[in-house]
UniProtKB/TrEMBL annotation:
InterPro entries: AAA+_ATPase, ABC_SmlMolc_Importer, ABC_transporter-like_ATP-bd, ABC_transporter-like_CS, P-loop_NTPase. GO terms for molecular function: ATP binding; ATP hydrolysis activity. Keywords: ATP-binding, Nucleotide-binding, Transport. Residues 1-234 form the ABC transporter domain. The keyword 4Fe-4S does not apply. Gene3D superfamilies: P-loop containing nucleotide triphosphate hydrolases (3.40.50.300). This is ABC-type Fe3+/spermidine/putrescine transport system ATPase subunit. It comes from Leeuwenhoekiella polynyae.
């Protein structure tokens, strides 16, 4: 179990993190979801032991982690932190980068392990290529494989799929998170990608300006965002006055109806989304968004009900 208690942290006089008190059970996957600059990387660096926190404690399995002021080599050996800049060695092969921290005493075992990791990140075909020659996304996949090579107890991932194209991203995420679950590796992922947080975490912590504003399971957070800011991470959110109350509704929660007592809207534009259309419409002079299975003409009037 990881226990984090950070009263406050700042690089300068300015406070970057405040009142972060949480624990993560062994084997769980947590996403820290928040916009750029809200403090996600700073939190991961503190947990790993790269930054000293004056007002707070980090505890793993009842042992307090003392941080860079007490450790000669920053970072804890049982934690791996995958930073946004990968930190790979450009002039050696993909396989040797992945095997960097693996013992050379058992060469056969090392070879098998590297082959297994190459498969997890779908880089088998590149094993002997120098890292220098890889694309950004390929480098990120090598860095991911290297981070899990020695099976850390706790893995901290900072925007781990940011350079990887959509085509590969989904398969890779499924592979990686399934592997971590299978091995019981606890994982904290910092991301601004709500889709990733929804699909691959046991719990999401929404961060804003250095503190958590809502913590829920993905389902609960999506169905019950506490305010328009949280909801906006999951798409175009509608803030509607219904029966004298303000309600936050996502586009999928509004459907076209024949019920003339429902809210009446006028279509502005239809956006094709692949599996459906997102319709932009006017309701009481305010833009409103809903999903539909076909597109509508500008100016068309219709009724919507809340599902
Ligand atoms: N080394 C540093 N010295 C001073 N301020 C810093 C330093 N690193 C980050 N900051 C500031 O701390 C705040 C939080 O930054 P942090 O990198 O933790 O955010 P983030 O949520 O990870 O953003 P991103 O997703 O863009 O990486 C920002 O205001 C940033 O400018």
């Amino acid at each position: 179990m990881l226990n984090v208690n950070i009263e406050s942290f700042g690089y300068t006089k300015e406070t970057v993190l405040k009142n972060l008190n949480f624990s993560v059970e062994k084997g769980k996957h947590i996403s820290i979801l928040g916009e750029s600059g809200c403090g996600k990387s700073t939190l991961l660096k503190i947990i790993y032991g790269l930054l000293h926190v004056e007002h707070g404690t980090i505890v793993w399995e009842d042992n307090e982690l003392l941080g860079p002021n007490f450790n000669l080599v920053p970072g804890e050996p049982f934690i791996k932190y995958l930073a946004q800049d990968f930190d790979l060695m450009p002039y050696i092969s993909v396989a040797d980068n992945i095997g960097k921290h693996l013992s050379r005493r058992f060469m056969q075992h090392r070879k098998e392990r590297i082959a297994e990791l190459l498969e997890v990140v779908d880089m088998t075909a590149f094993a002997d290529i120098h890292v220098k020659l890889l694309s950004g996304g390929q480098k990120q996949r090598v860095a991911l494989a290297r981070a899990i090579a020695k099976e850390p107890e706790l893995l901290l991932l900072d925007e781990p799929f940011s350079h990887i194209d959509n085509f590969r991203r989904n398969a890779l995420r499924r592979n990686l998170y399934a592997y971590l679950k299978k091995e019981g590796i606890t994982c904290i992922t910092a991301t601004h990608d709500s889709e990733e947080a929804l699909s691959f975490s046991d719990e999401i912590k929404m961060m804003r300006k250095g503190t958590f504003i809502q913590t829920e399971t993905p389902e609960a957070l999506f169905q019950n965002p506490k305010d328009a800011y949280v909801a906006s991470f999951f798409g175009d959110v509608n803030s509607l006055e219904i029966d004298g109350k303000t309600r936050l509704l996502m586009p999928h929660q509004l459907v076209v109806s024949k019920d003339e007592s429902a809210i009446q809207v006028e279509v502005l534009k239809s956006y094709f989304k692949g599996s459906h259309y997102l319709i932009e419409a006017l309701f009481k002079n305010k833009k409103i968004y809903f999903n539909a299975y076909k597109s509508f003409q500008k100016g068309q009037r219709m009724y919507l009900i809340n599902t």
